[in-house]
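Hey all, quick one. A colleague (J.T.) asked me to put the pyridoxal-5'-phosphate job into the tracker so the inputs and the structure tokens live in one place instead of scattered across chat threads. No bug as far as I know, just bookkeeping. Sequence used:
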Amino acid sequence: MKMESRLAQIGSLEDPATGGVSFPVYHATAFRHPRLGQSTGFDYARTKSPTRSVLESAAAELESGDAGFACSTGMAALQTIFALFAQGDHLLVSLDLYGGTFRLLEKIMSRFGVTASYVDTNDLDALESSSRPNTKAVLIETPTNPLMMVTDVEKISAWAKAKGYLVIVDNTLMTPYFQRPLEQGADIVIHSATKYLGGHNDVLAGLIVTKGEELSKEIAFLHNSIGAVLGPQDSWLLMRGMKTLALRMERHRDNALRIAAWLKEHPAVAEVYHPGLPHHPGHDVQKRQCSGDTGIFSFKMKDARTIEPILRHIRLIAFAESLGGVESLMTYPAVQTHADIPEEIRRAVGVDDRLLRFSVGIEHVDDLIADLDQAIQAAEREIGGGSR
Ligand SMILES: *Cc1c(COP(=O)(O)O)cnc(C)c1O
């Protein structure tokens, strides 16, 4: 079946007791054993829980993987994956990384002797020269945010396989609807399902999908041992959101592309970072490895003084941290999502005080452009029209 059909029908055939088309929320944490040595398949809910299991099977299938694991947040999913590594191990990680992942690696994993080098993961020479005898994995975000740097997953996976490295892809921004890294050679996909998969800015969740029996067993062991699992109510809420993923992603994509093109022509805007625009350096790779573009992009104003008034004047678009929901949100990465990344690294990749990130919702595109237009005009008036 096509992905639209699979998404709409998540859990709809799974409740034999009643035939309910929405899978029930099972709150039970303990399950009766029929007799000694027998199990219904469920023993204790941290290990396996009915509502969560339906979500996990759907996630595995959508990402073309072998096993899925639902975690309490995206960070919990990353922590569970990082527990694959041991003292002395080294990781190669995308530059312009999600701030929380950087913080987890630098402030916590470093205490356990796991180190990371931050490189442009689309640059084989840079990857090669940052490789060490103790390197164990490559962690890729593609596109990254806020700068939307694109990595060729197939190319990097082939390189990493030859070295014996694991390839982990954070697929939060694209979702399996537009990009399936396991089909392109990656071993593990992780999601902050809080974003597009949930889609309504109302549930925190993380997902892991693995390829291969051994790796799936290893992650199952860590998922159960660490215990940062997703609860039944949130599992249900996430599935409810995922049913409309296809429709939402198409609207997010269309709206974002329209607005990015409008901003590109705006005289107060210095640069627009959107892989769907032909001038973007990752445009060709993105087109080849994805079936569409995500709904988030960034743009740089010419004058940093316009940022504060723009954020104060937007009305329909909320000045808020996060992305991927039906409501449009605007973020100032330098002081919000990327505040934990040291200033020299932030500036080196281009996350400076003129950059805004826009998670475009599913509102009518004309209303979004009108809101942005009035906010930029008001900002320019306030600073005296000198921003161009
Ligand atoms: C939000 C996010 C995370 C962290 O997920 P949470 O659900 O907030 O814990 C990880 N990676 C990316 C790309 C994100 O956007």
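Adding what we noticed when we looked at it: The chain has two domains: 3-242, 245-383. The mean pLDDT is 95.
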